[in-house]
Amino acid sequence: MKFGVVVFPGSNCDADCFNAVKAVLDQPVEYIWHKSNSVEGFDCIILPGGFSYGDYLRAGAIARFSPVMEAVIEFAHRGGLVIGICNGFQVLLEAGLLPGAMRRNDSLQFICDDTYLKVENADTAFTALWQPGQVIKIPVAHGDGNYYCDENTLKELQQNNQVVFRYCSPAGEVTAQANPNGSIDNIAGVCNKQGNVLGMMPHPERCAEKILGNDDGAMLFKSILAAWQRRVK
Amino acid sequence: MEPRNNEGLKPGIWREMGLTDAEFEKVKNILGREPNYVELGIFAVMWSEHCSYKTSRPVLKFFPTRGEHILQGPGENAGIVDIGDGQAVVFKIESHNHPSAIEPYQGAATGVGGILRDVFTMGARPIALLDSLRFGSLQNPRTRYLFGGVVSGISGYGNCVGVPTVGGEVYFAPSYEENPLVNVMCVGLIDHKDIKKGTASGIGNPVMVVGARTGRDGIHGATFASEELSEESAEKRPAVQVGDPFMEKLLLEACLEVIKSGYVVGIQDMGAAGLTSSSCEMASRAGTGIEMDLSLVPRREEGMTPYELMLSESQERMLVVVKKGTAEKVKEIFARWDLEAVVVGRVTGDGMLRLTEGEQVVAEIPAQALTDEAPVYERPYSEPEYLSAVQELPVAKIPQPVDYERVLMDLLSSPNIASKEWVYRQYDHMVGTNTVVRPGSDAAVLRVKGTKKGIALTTDCNGRYCYLDPYTGGMIAVAEAARNLVCAGAKPLAVTNCLNFGNPEKPAVMWQFRRAVEGMSEACRSLNTPVTGGNVSFYNETRETAVYPTPTVGMVGLIEDLDYRCTQDFKDEGDIIIMVGETRMELGGSEYLRVAHGLEAKGRPPKMDLELEKKVQQAVLESIKRGLVKSAHDCSEGGLAVALAESCISGGIGAEIYSVENIRGDALLFGESQSRIIITTAENNVAELIRYLTVMEVPFTRLGTVGGRELKINLLDPGCAAGRPRAVINLPVSEMEKRWRGAIECLMK
Predict the structure, then answer these.
(1) Which H helix or E strand runs over A229?
(2) What value of ipTM does the predicted structure carry?
């Protein structure tokens, strides 16, 4: 299975995603320069975290005009697996591949810390190896991670089981206190209706190896590989 | 005002630029004529204290700078230390105090930007940042503004570039009220073969300006950094630069790519004094000259004069000397990152820094005159008058606490001791996925991917100790930094330092400076951690009051096998707690005196016995390597009780301690005797550990056991050890944690 990690000017978790794929799966992985207009030959596209174009206008707002995004959108529409992490999630929102928008954290401060997530949907290609409702620990690092959508969209997300991760307490209670940034409905990650595009604010690539003190994130990468293997068969 | 062409210099104009009459005479002698305005500006900035080290140079010679691991000592953009396998660590610390006092966000942000460039200009990929910060009291709203602004400036810049901020320190004391200290350290990783230096060699090689365009910001910033802060300082806000971390990130990637390409001869950041310092320093190091046509320098606005172009401190720019015939290739690499790279001149053989505007020569100065011939001052020094009064501490008159629990709780919520989570939660400390030990422990630890190795990093300085006795304070800063690394299981390798002092033209400040450097040198020699460079920041004064002498030490250590790293948190029920080292009857300079008795800086700092220090560090490090140690934590501010509380809090587990009260109870629990490390070991390893410590001939005491949900401390009467222990502390870990974790956040609300 071949992974592609898109590099926008200002991406800074590209190498971390690259490394996680290597370390956890030992599968082929390549960088895709943002000026490229094809994603031919890749089986999963990762839009990494960082500050594409400095986030000077609005997080992800300029990156979505990078030539590569047209190819990524087309790839997603064909059912290809796309995951956007942190800034990558913001790019997916700006590109219209996922519904909703990001606001500044309600504390108005950047926050870098471990968060606990409840796996609300374990039926996606990204989460299939977790148990439904399982509590996992994945760190966040963002200033604009306050997910928002209107009421109808939220209802739709809930009905279609598109809410993939919610912030929760270590015991799994979805509470306001466990919400690090003010996201509506404690949403930490959502997927599209088809389930092949995932956006999440927490960074699974930062907790994918034991040496880092936590390897909960490894399961996401393993799930992707397992889903692809099922599909290929 | 800048004079028009060919007008003579206004009499005394050099003084406005910060040059003395004697220095102006020296300039005339060097040139054999009167300088023009551009030349005068160049001399003024290069001979400023900030760039020339004219006061500090003779004193900095005390530092040991050589050692088996040292690949690059002082004199380059950053120091380099070998970590084996053809790899090395590049590191440096630098101050951005004055800009941060006036514009905290941009001041701190550009401090981060500058030190990052110092590291990647050597060809290294920056892998970590640390910040050593000093502010006044958090009760003061202006301090909260400065503190909040500095932290978000560091966060805004470092997070965006994608280099994790993994450690540092924050202290609060009244002496920093108007003049906060912002010291930033950057650490990079490099293969020996990729090391690049700031030299302009090879006559005829093109000289290129790359990165951001030059604007009118930061003109005379270095001169501004070389004078005291005053009421008028706020008006010098234009001397503070504005940072663009996105540009920095592009510049970082492009520079590393171009360095790997093999086209680069030499490269240097345009930091303080911008185009001026980078060009003359690169030429001077190589013994060459540089000729530049300033009309070719890309600029942000029309109408900029040669003077402005040479003195601008616009950020995110580099000067690069490339091999003849490769300029186009270099341009292509920068263009890929949407950056400009423009040939503005060439290396010459005549040793001159020659600046033209088209055909017209606008300045012509021997490059080495700006660097090597800068004035050097042996300034007078004498012991400050305040010293004998503050050193006196009538211990007998200080009442012993009635309520030890209250004292411990007050210490835990003192901002100097309380958790700095409010700060480091705003820093991305995980990007890069190398952070193995996160902020909050004695030292941060990063893995070196693809190896078993780890790098341990710390910064350290207790300004209060240095105020009370700069020699001992300087020694302690080095010793404690090394001790922090040892607690992580690392062998201390080398030092970078940032020497923050007041106005050196005052003999008392000069004395503090000399004594601190002497103390640090002594400790560096003893602990075999040479100094690889750093930065001196003088004139940290407002209204005649200097900050505490604050010689911040940044230290790098190596863990050969990360399986044997160590952290401060208590691990398991039943583990045995041992204190290596000894507690003396010492209260001077302690946080306890401030918190419990309102004595901000009183007495003599704790004694520093370097022989004992060395032994303690060797014994603990070796014990960790032998797998005998489950946790290690240095005893520092707040003493034994605070160290125990911190290990309990971070481990989420209690402890029960029995200690013989052979000295005053407050000195025993809250005194800050040096060279002490609290370690724990599994019960089945106790005998072996004790045997080893005995063989190593280090003093140690068995203190108690890990377990339960409380920290219980009992004192035993030394007269009859069999007597009933006096329980002085019995506090739930969760309550201590609440106070310790919430203190700073609470003050910032």
Answers:
(1) helix A218-232
(2) 0.96
